[in-house]
Every structure is written in structure tokens, then in C-alpha cells.
Amino acid sequence: MQKAWIEKMYSLIKDTLLSQVVTLWGVFKKLFVEADTVEYPDQQPYMFPRWRGRIILSRDPDGEERCVACNLCAVACPVDCIALQKGEMEDGRWYPEFFRINFSRCIMCGFCEEACPTNAIQLTPDFEMAEYVRQDMVWEKEDLLISGCGKYHDYNFYRVAGKQISGKDKGEALNEAKPVNVRSLMP
Amino acid sequence: MAKIVVDGNEYEVNPNNNLLQECLSLGLDLPYFCWHPCLGSVGACRQCAVKQYRDENDEKGTIVMACMTPASDGARISIADEQAHDMRERVIESLMISHPHDCPVCEEGGECHLQDMTLMSGHNYRRYDKKKVTHHNQYLGPFISHEMNRCITCYRCVRFYDDYAGGTDLSAQASHHHTYFGRHEEGTLENEFSGNLVEVCPTGVFTDKVFSQAYTRKWDLQTAPSVCTGCSAGCNITPGERYGSLRRVVNRYNSEVNGYFICDRGRFGWEYVNGEDRVQSPVQVLDGDSKEMSDDAISALFSKLAEGGVIGIGSPRSSNESNYALRQLVGEANFYPGIADDEHAINQLILKLHKDKAFHSPSVREIEQADAVFIIGEDITNTAPRIALAVRQSVRNKASELAELNNIPVWQDAAVRELAQQERSPLFILSNAASRLDDVAQQTFIGTCAEQANFAFAVAEALEGGTPAGLTEQQQKLLPEAVEALSNAKRPLIISGSSNGSIEMVQAAANIARALSGDEPSHLALMLPEANTMGLELLVGPEQELGAALKRCASGDVQGMIVLETDLYRRAPTAEVDNALSRAETVVVLDQMRNATTQKATHVFPVTAFSEQESTYVNYESRAQLSFQVHQSVTDARPGWKWLTNGNADINSIIKDCSDEAAGFGSLDGLVPRISQFVAGLKIPRQSHRYSGRTAMIANRNVHEPKQPLDNESVMAFSMEGMPAMKDASILGSTWAPSWNSNQSISKFQEEVNGELKQGHTGTLLLTEKTESGVPFQANQGEDASNSDRLTLSLAFQIFGSEELSARSPAIQKRMTDAYVALAPADAARLEISHGDAVALDGGAVAVACIREKISEGSCVVHCGAQINPHDLAGAVSLTKTSESLSGNGLSCLIVSDLCEESY
Questions:
Q1: Which of B173, B697, B702 is the closest to A182 by Cβ?
Q2: What is the CATH number of domain B276-340+539-661?
Q3: What would the 3-class secondary structure string for B195-256 be?
Q4: CA distances (Å), B423 to each of A25, B155, B403, B427, B479, in order?
Q5: Hey, which of A21, B390, B493, B623 has its CA 20 to 30 A from B783?
Q6: Nearest chain A residue (CA) to B698
Q7: Which CATH class is domain A55-160?
Q8: Is the Cβ of A105 closer than 8 Å to some Cβ of chain B?
Q9: Residue A14, pLDDT above cutoff 90
Q10: Which residues of B touch A103 (CB under 8 A)?
């Protein structure tokens, strides 16, 4: 009877007290390890370039707007928070007359970046987008457009595409032959 | 019926068609480019390759082009076969070798047949590393953009434009991989149906220039089935809206009416809807100052008007509902048509003829099937363009006949054309100047309205066995030819109309048709000038004349008048209108746009445009069609009936009332679908399932999204939610089917290719009861009033400019001519007038002189446009040169075949 009681007490101590001691030891050990948490905002964490944060519109290497207002980002967006309207420059380029992202709806899924055929829309490592007023989370093109190329440095849609713009005639895009002379009989 | 086996499954098909057409009719996915349901097969693109087996033991099979192979009984084919699939993939790979990588900046992107077919064929990567062939583009006018690099040389454009629509200025040029589709030089595409190139081209070579100015992808457009209000043909269209403005109009398939094609007036004449000239809000004009009206003031005004003593003027461009509401408000005795008196008399005669047992008013499809056509006076290319396109097809029935005799299937387009050469079914045209259909006519007769009517009466007399007297030499030569062609025809068709204001022509047309009618009624198509002329004429009696209404007003007999969507200065002499408007105490004008009449009104109310309201219209053959609301107006505009009933009616109740109360409208109510017809009472969404930007479109105004606008009256919703249209094709705005994003998806909604839409609605004919059987009209041998100084006058119409509302659209304006007076070279020489001179008509209205070869001496043809009130002109005019000039395009946009530009 007594033996059984002793065994019971022993297992109790082993299961409860010992585990607490082990836990305490684990915590105690961490006192001498460098902390994973950072002192945000005094300390800024390192954000990976491919982090899906604040959306920007980039420019091509020549400094022109990359967005051609094709609307693919808008249609890919699962929360429908992108709206834009196509316009056309005098030189023949398409551009967005307005480009609006409602960040209060955005879920940072990155589908827009994936859909973009010109590398114009890109997600950046910036995540600090909180606002006191929700209306301030509606960003227009002026707020979104940056002056650089973002993550993709070389791509220029109009150098590849056959669309003629002033300064780049027919046959001057990548891999294009000179325009055909329809009155010629030569092969 | 024939039995064929496709991939092991047995199907019943029509052996008169080809395999491709039958596969599409069966709902199978088989890629194609050059085949078009209306253009037949030429086997140019090699895209519809399938494997055909001799019998069930044949395991090898041979690859054939489905579009060039008859669906004969016992045919065994495979679409899924690996070799066939591989061939299609390789073919599209070669077609895509020079495609320019510009889908993001292409207006066709997202509704591109080439994109769809590329995906369906399985091609996805360009392996060819040599240079792409490029082409220079051409300027093709204000309607169409050209981007030749995108071409895959399917030849559909020239087959539609030249072979189907009779155009002469688009051609295939150069050869091999340099093939180019364009004009001989830059310039406007002249054909009236050039806009269809946008839909016929499987990729983005020809795109809609007007749409591109405020471009929106197909999936972002809010659409609903609508009806064109450009003329009395009643073509079905799909307008698209985005961000509160109308963006484009495309064809909507209706097997009985327009099929796959509409004219350029319908496709490009909608811009006025977004125009700044729209009436914005209800105003009261007091001593020249306009003051916006409050709701109380409005209901007080309409309550006062309802007390009586007011006359109402209905409109041939208003819906039945608005005209009916006005008639209810003012009473039948006080309701007058906003139609000139002489035209009104003809329209009433046409109504009478509709009820005659001897006649049948043919649909556009039936017009295409006619094997002899006789046109009297009506310039259908300019007054009802879609009918002209149908007539152009009817002359090909001779070719089909020949093909049948020679055992060539009709769908073998190139072979049939080669066989027929210049053989055409007879087409006779009586006109006052050269018409745009002359190139396919067997014979034409040019004369004044009276001469045409007299000749037509003579034809009728000869058909009855008589020997008409008093014919000129030319007429004596023409007469037996016409009589023979008409009496030999199985399905003869007589076309005339009321736009010329000559009742004799319509009477003569009726006489010919009566002479041709036997046990079956003969086909008599009588065109009306505007979209709902028929609907308005059904609501008024012949004795209700606009002139009488204006007289009542001028006499001070009435307290006021309500003018519904009518610019009186286009309908009656200026002096009469001035007089009436100045005497009337209250002039309430309801209209879409500001015009001369709204300027004289005491109260102006904005009414909705065709795309902003649900409404019904009746076309020339008495076909009533329902047009749904596409979008909400951004102004205070309401439908006319909403103002006139003081907001006490909804669309369903007003249509029900009109159907119950108005004679002839009995079947109108049946047009309106009931929500209970649909699964679980779900509404039909106006927005596509991919509609984008909902949470951002208006977030700049307020980030808190408002509830979607509710539509309590219609079965359609301003939303993406509900039962998609594909489940109920009777409400089919925009066509889309899985894998088929382009308009070619229409085959998924048809019972069979070129057939009716599944569960589809083609409209309801209102005048089906034939009660009367009339007697032939007596020829009225009126003498020509012309003498040496004065030229007999008849009116000319222009597809761009003659219709009031479309003429306010910027793109149409670029194609409009100034008011002109056309005359024969001899008359011009006598009067010392050169082509392009400004001349005054009877010292008043100014028009540009236009010298034309094919016009009879001693007569002139005047195009008025918005610059001249035709009712101010006498039956004969004198012309004098003037130093005044018109500010428009001059004659640069006039497209006729018989211009003599050299001076006298």
C-alpha cells in the first residue's frame, strides 16, 4: 500500500515538477542567446527583395512609364482593388490615364505582378502601410509610380513589341525585318 | 439527316453542310480561322484539320480540312487524334511566326479569336528564331485602325468587305509571306459596313478606333441586349459601358434580323450619348433664364398638364412606352405624331398594306432569300443600310441555284463564285440618282419621283397583262425585262418606302406586289424613316396630323403642348413651327439633346438615351423588340414615360398597359421576360464574371463602397451576381463560352450554326392579323411641275448625317457631307454652276452643288442633313450661286459612283 503511494508520488514529481524544471532550464538557457525579435521600429528588419509588400508602378530603362494599361492586373486581382483607364500618348504609347489601387482591400497576393506583361507593376518589401484614415489607403498613379525600374532592370516592352511608336518605326523592334514593300515582286 | 462518327460518338448532322460547321453546331471545339458562318469555306488557313477514316476498320486515316469536307453520311472523323492535333498546333505555330508580341496594347486582346485558337491548338512557344515580317499600317478613316503586323492572312477581311458587302477599296496585295490587306492608298474605307471588319477579323488587324479612344477590355464592359435606333431595320446590338460612359456598340446576333452584321451608323453613331449637348436636368425657362426645377414644381406641372387642354406630339425615335404614356396624358384626340404630314400619310398607307392579305413584310433573312428584287425610289443604302446588305446577298441566289445544278455545295464559297462569275439574280432599281447598289443591279432607271412611280405603275399594269402607254424609249426597253424577271421569280420582293415623301411610289409598289401575289402573299418590304416610326403610327390615326396640331397651337386653342423627343424644325415648315411655339403658353419639351425646339421651350426635361432605358421598338416589318437598359444615366435623365406618368409607373406596368389598351400592341407584353422564368428567381447580371475593379472604381470618391445600384424593374441586375446569360440565351448581351472569348462563341448559343439562338427571342410581329384585301391603286398621272428655271426637287439621304442623333457623334461627323444639291451636268452648265460651288435654293437655304452624271435633267436631289429644313423647300427650286459657304466637310465624304468633278 505504502509502496504504491511512494511510486505514485514519484511519478507525479517526475511528470510535473521535473517538466517545470526542464522548461525553466530551457528559458534560462535563452538568456545567453541572441534574440530573434528586433526592436521595431527603432530597428528595421531585413526584408527580402521578393517580399510581397506595397505595390509600385515602375519605369522602363529609358525612364518612360512601363504600364501600358492592358488591364491584366485588374482582372487578375482577386479582390478587384485595381482600377485603371487606358489612354494613348501622342507618340502612340498606351498609358493609364488613371491607375488606382485600393490598399484597404489589397491582400498582397502578387497576382497582379504575375499577370503584368511589361513588368510595370511590382510588389516591394515595404509593408508599413497603416493609415489612421481609411480613405488614405486609396493610392493613385502619382503615389504608385516610382522613378526607377524596380526589380527588373532591362525589360522595355516597346523594344520587343511590334507596335509602332514615334522613335521606333515598324521593323525596328527586336527580331523584326524591315517593313515589306508590297509593290515589290522580289521574294 | 446523315449520321457521322466523331471520336467514336455517333451524331446526326445535316449532309448539306461541311464537317466544321456541323462539329460547331454539335458544340464540339474545333479551331478554325478562315471559315465564317456567313462567308462559307475557302480552306485558306488549314487550321481545322481532322482525321477522316474510310470505315471502322481503317485505323490509319487521312488528315482532311473539316471546312472543305462534306458531312456526308457515314463519315468517321477524329478531332482528338494526335496527328490531327499536332498538325493544328504546327499550323498555328507557322501562322504566329510574325505575330508582333503586342497583345497588351491590342484592342482585340481578351476577345481575340487568334488567342483562343492558339490556346485550343496547344501552341505556346515561338521556336522560330529568324526575323519577323513587318508591314506599314494605313490610315483607314475615323472608324477603323489598321495594324497589319497582326495579320495571319486568313482572307476573311476581303471576303467580307469585297465579296459580301460589295466594297471596292480593300484588297489583298503582294504575295507569299508579304501578303498585305489594305487600300491601294491611305484613305477612308468607303463601304457602309466597314465596321464589321472589327468583328470579322479573327485578330487585331482592324480595330474600332472610336472604342480605342476610351478603351476597355471586353470583360470590363457592362452590357445588355439592346436594339439599334439608327433606322427602321431594328438591328440587334450590344452596347458596352464602363465608368459611367458608353464605350462601344457591337453586333448582337438575331437570326431573323441582322444576323452577324450591322452598318457603320449603328456601330459608330452612339457617341452623342456621352456628349455635352445632352440635356442635363429639368429646367424651366423664364424670360430667357433657365432655372432648375424642384421635384414639387415638376409634379405640379405634370398634374396641371394632366387636367387637359394640352396637345402632345409623339416621336418616331421614342419608345412605344413613352409615346403611349404621352397619349394617355393628353388623350387620343390631342395626340399627334412628330412626323411631317406627307410622310405620315404614306406611313398610314403602309400600315394599311401590312394588314392586307396580299402582302407579307419580309424579315431581313427573308430579303436575303429573294430571287428577284425591285426597288422603287428608296435609297436603302442610306435609309436602312442593313437591308441594302441583305439585298446584295439576294443577288447571289442565282449563284446558289447554279451551284446546286452542278452539284457544288453552296458552302464552297470560292467554287460557287468561280462558277457564277457575273451571273446574278435580277435586281431592278428605280432611283433619283445613282445608288450604291447599282453595281449588282440588272437594270437601273433614274428619274424624278413621279417618273419612277409612273414606271412602277406601268410594270404593275404589264404584270396584270395590260399594255401600258406613254412610256419613254428607255422605259419600253426596261419594261419587258422587269416583267419577265419578276414573273419568273419564285420569291420576288418589292422594296419601297416613305422617306421620299411620295405616296405614289408606295402605291405603285403595292400594285406590283399585288400583281405578283397568288395563293401566297407576295413579299413587299416598305421602309420607314426612323427606328420606331411604325410604333408611333400604330398609336395615331391617319387624321391626326402634325400640321393640324401646329395650327391648333397657333390659334391659341390649347393651353400648352408637350413635345416628346421631336425637333419640330425637322418636321414642319419653320414659319409654322415658329408661329405655334411662340403662341403656346407652355411648351414642355422632353428630349435627349439640346436642339432648335428645346431652345424655344418653356420647360425642358432630359430623357434617357437608348442605352439608358428599357424600352420596346417596332421595326419596318412590325417586329417589336425589347431593348434592355445597359447603364444608368449620369445626368438627371429619365425615360420619357417616367416623366409623363409623374413617376407613377414602372416599365412592366407601362408595357402591360400599352399592350392591353393600345390597338395593335396586344403581343407587346409577351416580350418582357419574368423573373419567375429563371432559376431560383435569380437575375441576369449585366457584368461579366470577370468584371474588374469593383472595389477601386469609385474609391477615389469614397473608400466605403456603396451597395450595387438596384434595378427593381428589370430582370437584369447591375452586378456580376446572378444567373449568367449563357444559361438563358434569350437575354444574351455579350457572348462568352469557356475557351471562346471572342464573338465567335456565338455558335455555342445557336441551335445550329446560322440558326436561332437556343431559347432565343427574335422579337414579335405585331401586325400578323390580315383583315383587309385591297384593290390596286390608280396611277396618278401628275404632270411634272418643272420648267426651264426651276428644278424638280427630291430628297437624298446619307447614312452619315441624315439620322438626327447619330449625326451628333464626333466620329460620324467626320464622315458627314454638307447639305448638297445634286444636279445633272447639262443643268449645271446652263446655270453656270460648278461642282463644289455654294448655291442658294430659292434664294434661301445654302447647299453645296454636286454635279452627278446619273440624275435626270430638269431635276435636282437635295441632301438636307441638319443644315436645311426640308419642309421649307418647294417641290421645285431655282438655284443661284452665292458667296455664303457651309462650315462642314464639303463634299469630301460623299461616296457616289457618278460624280462629275470637272466644271462645266
A1: B173
A2: 3.40.50.740
A3: HHHHHHCCCCCEEEHHHHHCCCCHHHCEECCEECCCCCCCCEEEEEEECCEEEEEEECCCCC
A4: 104, 23, 12, 12, 20
A5: B493
A6: A83
A7: alpha beta
A8: yes
A9: no
A10: none
- For residue B216, which residues of chain A lie inside 8 Å, CB to CB? 71, 85-86
Best residue in A60, A65, A98, A102 to probe B by mutation, most B CBs within 10 Å?
A102
Taking the C-alpha atoms of residue B208 and residue B183, their distance in angstroms, rounded to an integer, is 17
Rounded Cα gap, residues B108 and B145, in angstroms:
11
The CATH architecture assigned to B2-95 reads Roll (3.10)
Condensed to tens digits (0 to 9), the pLDDT of residues B558-601 reads 989 999 999 999 999 999 999 999 988 899 999 999 999 999 99
CA distance B367 to B209: 31
Helices (H), B807-900: 810-813, 825-831
Chain B (530-549) residues lying within 8 Å, Cβ to Cβ, of chain A: none
Neighbours of B750 (CB within 10 A): 20
Residues paired with B182 in a beta bridge: B171
> Which residues from B are below 8 Å from A187, CB to CB?
176
Q: Which residue has the higher pLDDT, B286 or B254?
A: B254
Band of the pLDDT at B723, cuts 50, 70, 90?
Answer: confident
Q: Does B699 touch chain A (CB under 8 A)?
A: yes
Closest chain A residue to B102 measured between Cα atoms?
Answer: A161
Q: What does the H/E/C string look like for B346-379?
A: HHHHHHHHHCECCEECCCHHHHHCCCEEEEECCC
Strand intervals (E) in A3-61: 55-57
Please check whether residue B800 is in contact with residue B808, taking contact to mean a CB–CB distance below 8 angstroms: no
* Interchain pair A173, B216: CB under 8 A: no
Q: For residue B134, what is the nearest residue in chain A, using CA coordinates?
A: A179
B24 φ, ψ (degrees, to nearest 5) = -70, -40
**pLDDT tens digit string along B290-307?**
899 999 999 999 999 998
Q: What contacts B299, CB < 8 A, 6 or more positions away?
A: B646, B647
Give the CA distances from residue A132 to residues A56, A106, B700, in Å, rounded to whole numbers and listed in that order: 21, 17, 17
**Who contacts B816 (Cβ-Cβ below 8 Å, separation ≥6)?**
B798, B800, B801, B807, B865, B888, B889, B893
With beta carbons under 8 A apart, name residues in chain B contacting A171. Answer: 134
**Closest A-chain CA to B697:** A83
Residue B833 CA to residue B821 CA, distance in Å, equals 11
State whether residue A64 sits within 8 Å of chain B by CB.
no
Chain A neighbors of B240, CB-CB under 8 A: none
Two domains, one topology: B2-95 and B358-520:
no
A81 contacts B695? CB cut-off 8 A: yes
In chain B the first and final C-alpha atoms are separated, in Å, by: 65
Residue with cell 394640352: B310
For chain B, the domains span 2-95, 106-113+129-274, 276-340+539-661, 358-520, 791-881
Reported CATH class of domain B791-881? mainly beta
Half-sphere exposure in the Cβ direction for B406 (13 Å, CA): 15
- Cβ neighbours of B147 in A, within 8 Å: 163
Residue B360 near residue B377, CB atoms below 8 Å: no
Nearest to B265 by CA among B808, B870, B832: B808
In chain B, residues with a C-beta closer than 8 Å to the C-beta of A84 are 693
B134–A177 C-beta distance less than 8 A: yes
Instruction: Compute the CA torsion angle B204, B210, B213, B218 (nearest 10 deg).
Output: -50
CA distance B16 to B393: 20
Q: Give the ipTM of the model, two decimals please.
A: 0.91
Q: Which residues contact B663 (CB under 8 A, 6 or more apart)?
A: B538
CA distance B103 to chain A (A): 8
- Nearest one of B698, B384, B351 to B539, comparing CA atoms: B351
**Domain B358-520 adopts which CATH fold?**
Dimethylsulfoxide Reductase; domain 2 (3.40.228)
